[in-house]
Amino acid sequence: MGKVACANVLSDLYAMGVVQCDNMLLLLGIAKELSNTQRKVVIPMILEGFRDLAREAGVAINGGQTVVNPWMIIGGVATSVCSANEVIFPNQAVVGDKILLTKPLGTQVAVNLHQWYAAGYTFLGNCQRSHLR
Predict the structure, then answer these.
(1) Burial 53-80 (b: 16+ CB within 10 A, else e)
(2) Are 13 and 78 in contact (CB under 8 A)?
(3) Which end of the chain lies in a sparser environment, N or C, as judged by fewer CB atoms within 10 Å?
(4) What are residue 66's DSSP bridge partners?
(5) Which residues share a beta bridge with 76?
(6) Residue 80 and residue 66: Cα distance in Å, rounded?
(7) Collapsing DSSP states into helix, strand and coil, what is residue 105?
(8) pLDDT for residue 93 is more than 60
């Protein structure tokens, strides 16, 4: 979980062509329902994974925040100081540019719809469960 979170944080820079991360912060929300025993086992493993991938990427984690939360959250912030010509902005795409997809498009929307339907959200209107498969 920690490695995935770190990769997600860094991918925002990498997606725009920025390959050097100057500063990273780690954000951790510890689920309040975890027992002390669970916290002593789970939290170090998550932090180790995050730190391991940051180290592999050559990035130092320079701070962050930890809070007790209703659910588990791990993420962070990655920043880099660079000039505009070192960044690939999405609005600079031209016909013929290649796009590399690392996973299918639209999967998160499908997951969200399924969760919202299961939770009984009314804003789904006439959406049928069969539409979510």
Answers:
(1) bbeebebebeeeeeeeeeebebebebeb
(2) yes
(3) C
(4) 28
(5) 26
(6) 23
(7) coil
(8) yes
Q: Which of 52, 40, 36, 35 is nearest to 1 (CA)?
A: 52
CA 120 – CA 73 distance, rounded (Å): 24
Burial 11-34, CB ≥16 within 10 A → b, else e: eebeeeebeebeebebebbbeeee
> Which tokens is 60 given?
């130092």
Mean pLDDT of 61-69: 94
Q: What is this structure's pTM? A: 0.71
C-alpha span between 83 and 75 (Å, rounded): 26
Tokens coding 90: 């999405």
One-letter amino acid at 17 equals G
